[in-house]
Amino acid sequence: MITIRSFILFIFIISANVHGDDSTSTSFKYSKIISTPDLSFFSNVYTGLDIIEQMDFKPLKNKSIALLTNHTAVNRNGKHILDILKDFKDVKISFLLALEYGIWGIDDNRAKMIGRDQVDPIHGAQIIDLFNTYLYPPHWVMDKIDLVLIDFQETGSRYSTFIATMSKVLEAASNHQVPVMVLDRPNPIRGDIVDGPVPRTEFQSFESYHLFPIRHGLTLGESSLIINEMGWTKDSKRVDLSIIPMSNWDREMWYDQTKLVWRDPKPFLTDQVNLLAYTGMDLFRGTNMNIGFGTDTPYLVVGAPWLATSFLLTKLNEQELPGVEFKEVKYRPSGSIYHTKVPKFDGQSCSGIRIMIKDKNKYEPVVTATTMMLYIQRLHPREFQWEKDGYVDKLFGSNELRVIAAQNKPPGHLPAIWARDVYKFSEFRQPFLIY
What we know:
The chain is of the alpha/beta class. The chain is about 30% helix and about 15% strand. It has 2 domains: about 30-265, Rossmann fold (3-Layer(aba) Sandwich); about 270-420, Aspartate Aminotransferase, domain 1, CATH 3.90.1150. Helix 6 (about 220-230) links the parallel strand 9 (about 180-185) and strand 10 (about 240-245). It is globular.
């Protein structure tokens, strides 16, 4: 009996014969997109990992590899890339490069200690922490490998440190002339929506590392393509970059429409609802407000012991913000498994506003969050505070949010400010869109 996997593999073989030895096609100077067969006769979405798995990992054979990944790198059946590759003895995973929160997230103790080093027990690969220990992969890693392989699920919002870490890996790969391959994955909050300001250069940080809007609408592969082609790394370094694209993913898809297995991209992004809310509400980390850490609804509630919720609820309802409703809540933050820091107002009774997303297609995360923030600041000019060192400016991408707040201007002023950013970025990204 012919299985779906066998049929797909047959299609790959036919495609390779049609295209001859040249299995890549590209119109880019430094990067290439690996050609894959048309799988539109299947209804499934296939990630880059699914595609290269159907190719029996042929591009990786007889190579020593450093894999930049985390727990989200699973195939359609929920099987992790490291577990899949254990059956491919001619693919050598020599090092694992860990993003923020590690390879396996906060709840998995899969790695074991050998001496002072963490090691993956399946491949014997040493784990290199690129968030807490190293900024770049050490030279003794890069000198021993033939390829950097990248596979992880991004959030769709530029607050994530994952893209900054990937950029540092690209720089190291360029310095050591090591090629890089990216296995592409969906943008979980759609790839056709761009929103929020582009960071000004003086406000760039590890959480606003590149000139992307807050909601950038890019896949992991498209992000890497822009970074590489534009030279958005230190000293404009480029690498020999290849991207294994997805099949059957459409830009207007939400993640749940892909039918792919969900893995929380960050410990506190527990489902696709709070992932969407995070796109706006993460700005509140630049304030002294609690945003649900210490509760089971991170990013879906904002509060403080002093918050006058009744009046705030009235003002928010007057705005008629699309796709969202609000209600008053009382809650008490208590520790947090989602964050290494003690949550704000830990153990204290808080008055809060709960966000209820009614229509995710109409909901505007950045507009909603900034509207809430400006009204809270206006209602509580003494109690409400910005975090020190202008942290909110680094999240927002400029000081315009604080300036508008200081001037007591209506929240509607802000979207007009970043509308030009959205328009220009939407035009700029067009040549780099793979889908």
